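Work Package 3 (structural annotation) set out to generate three-dimensional models for the target panel prioritized at the project kickoff. During this period the team completed the workflow that converts sequence records into discrete structure tokens, so that structures can be stored uniformly alongside our sequence database. As a representative example, we reproduce one entry of 657 residues exactly as it appears in the project archive.
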Amino acid sequence: MEKDVKIKEIKPLDIKSVTTCDATAQMLKKAEKDGVETAHHRAASMKACPIGAVSACCKHCSMGPCRLNSKDPYGKVGVCGATIDTIQSRNFGRMVATGTAAHTDHGMSMLELFKEVVNGHIKEYSIKDPIKLEEVAASLGIEVEDREIKDIAMDLHKELERTYTQVEGEIPFAKRVPEKTLETWRKHNVVPRGAMREIMELMHRTHMGVDQHYENITNQCSRTALADGWGGSMVATEISDILFGTPTPVPGDVNMGCLRENEVNIVIHGHEPNLFESVLASVDDPKLLKTAEDAGAEGINLVGMCCSGAEMLSRHGVPHAGNFMSTETILVTGAVDAMGVDVQCIKQGLAQVADCYGTKLFTTNPRCRIEGVDHISFVEHDPRACTDAIVKGAIDRFKNRKVPIEIPNIKNSGIHGFSMEYINYMLGGTFRGSYKPLNENIINGRIRGVAGVVGCTNPRVKQDWVHVELVKELIRNDVLVVQTGCSQIALAKAGLYRPEAAAMAGPGLSEVCETVGMPPVLGLGSCADNSRILTACSEMVRTGGLGESLADLPVAGAAPEWMSEKAIAIGQYFVASGVYTVFGVTYPIIEGTKFYEHLFGGLEEMGFGKWGFTADPYEMARMMIAHIDKKRKALGIDRARERVMMDMADRQKLEAA
């Protein structure tokens, strides 16, 4: 502990009920001994508001706040006469709008960076994947044959800018949506125009005295959320791939054991890959390495956390120290010399913990400042000015370390970086890349279906436990799992990203994994990279044999430990796309209300997906598998075909089909 920090008594946690992460558990014990409070302690001492938890309150005007009775939701209305369904759908809509705004703002930032790089105004970054650039451009109808990369790139920027700014028409990536799914969207008038337009309209509709019909509000929720999944997030993913490289499988380590006591340890936490990419250059700078050596360090050790960490893990194999609920406890090690943060999922509590252990904490983005924390502006035209300063601050702290170091000796290895493009290559090779082997193995029953398990960690439940138990149940039942965000790190810590984890899968999935040489769980990157799942599902439909729309596919999604408004936006864009999506922890609606029944059943009757909820991982798995089986039955593939060995003639017939 820093000598000038007052130690206070912390009420001990029942740590076994708080986390399954041994490294986090070890640091929680140390934090309590040191008198340092974390989000786990605050969650234990602060009871969640039972009325707010189910959206039975409204504070959108000064006639309230109005509180309705969750046990008798139709017993009274708000001062303006708003019913429980109006109040709940407004609250839900504002969560969707905020979550969509977060991903949209991130996507716009990436697109603006792309424009400046292409124009030559920013020289610190370049187009790393010109093939991906041409593929994305071609998918949007932009001519690529016999054209300069710069010209293609400028046309792509102009086209993708419509994702955010246009007020009429359909967003560009609507061209990727399977035709039958797009027909459903058009029928119900939910095809997004531009993200700014949709967010603005949803916020207007949820204002006091405007939209007062839960079904109408839900329609705009879908339209806004789709502007996230098929707009803001998809643009962010595609542009990040073009600028920084499309991920391919790389070995990578996770957990706090990635810290090194004799080196300068720098943690980058947030969601913007351009900050992290610049830090990569800074820590490799010979002058800064020499400065670290002169300070007595054996090197500079860069590790990631949260979603930007997941992107760097997927692209470069940069070690990852932990997910959202470990961002404070890693500072308790005393080994972190500097932490740089940008936007999204940044706890204000980091400031207090950093002070306690003398860690240099820096904010870098104008959208995210923290009271009492040093700010170093990250400017894309001169990114090294910021990232070099972070490294120098870390070296200075290393040279003047005052606290004892305790690094958990826990490090978990795995394979990360499974983009949609690599999955295509992995299944068919360079010349015959195709999703056909995946579809065929679903049709013949080796793979039961596909599940996307994504999202956050939440201190209201035992950290990582729901993620791990859910995925174990799914793969045991031959369901292939794809992951993004904090969920990816939870599973990596549990060893499920190793190819050897195929032994934990059912016989069919295990056979496929062993044949291809892949783990039964595929990591796709950050939470913005959920768009990879949408793209992969669309490719499954186009490949054939599994229906004509996304709603026909034997797939399901889950966010077992969600906690943010972004998660609600993500869930709604999957539901609106046609995917059954189950959330854990809690759900912000009173069960049995008309709005609840609409989300949990009515949307499916309209041709969309539907919501599900349970806090229990085994029940969640059962619900998802039951849905997958329902879709298999509707497709007529509910009985596995007889497995026969094919000779070369059979294979040639299959390839010619």
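The two ends are 68 Å apart (CA to CA).
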